[in-house]
Fold:
Amino acid sequence: MAVALISNSDCGRHDTGWGHPEHVGRLRAIPAALRADPELYQALLQVEGRHATPAELSLVHGADYVASITRAAERAEAENAVIHLDPDTVVSGGSWDAATAAAGCVLDAVDMAVDGRAIRSFCAVRPPGHHAVRDRAMGFCLFGSVALAARWARVHHGMDRVLIVDWDVHHGNGTQALVEADRGIHYVSMHQWPWYPGTGAAEDRGSHGTVWNVPLGAGLPRAQYTGALLGAVDRATAGFSPQLVLVSAGFDSLRGDPLGGFTLELEDIDQLTRELKGRADLWCGGRLVSALEGGYAVGQTAAACVAHLRAMV
Structure:
């Protein structure tokens, strides 16, 4: 079964500045790390993903909001400036192309999983997406790529059951908000608590009980994090056999990340990937699509992407 690495060169055009945690160096480090593992590099199907259209983005975002990002990028380009949508989230002249490419890559990954070109894939994309809500950017995120992919699978591929697993150190408030009204999508998020954005309490099960939030403190033993996440995945799939597994792969959950306090190591990324892969093999013929979210220690994040892909292969 082919495993794909999907990206788009336009993802590098989201110019936040080198002083911003979510800078282009995060993405550039990934192919460099992969080239150090030539056997893995050669084993991957490498794909240049497409751009999502405004109509596709409107599956989860308001059309007015989508248009506002276009206008902000045009203004930033005309003024040769960076526009702040909030204190953390910016738009540059290339941000529209980057954000639509990030979303389009994940949509391509879903299509490839369905038609068999690549049963599993990792989308090396930016900006991240899991904090973006229907009508607002936040937390470095412009469009909710993984939430969009789940809706795409439901609407365009007729899937009845989609699972999203989010191991970013921050709660995916945007993903939850964008999918919780859809009973056919189950969402599991393990995240640091208390921490940005202040959402994701364990008792928050979403509007239809289809959300499993796993808030945990910083500095815990590694096995406590992996065990808690996998336990939540098993609860979320009791009587619900997914036809597609989506992963919000935030590598800021690793020990030493400047924006988190979890203690995971590369071995844990390997374990979590293998566990989800094994479950996907049983549930849905192995269909698993992953997309980069956080991860702000550049070398460590790139190494985690390699470990994640190696476990997929």
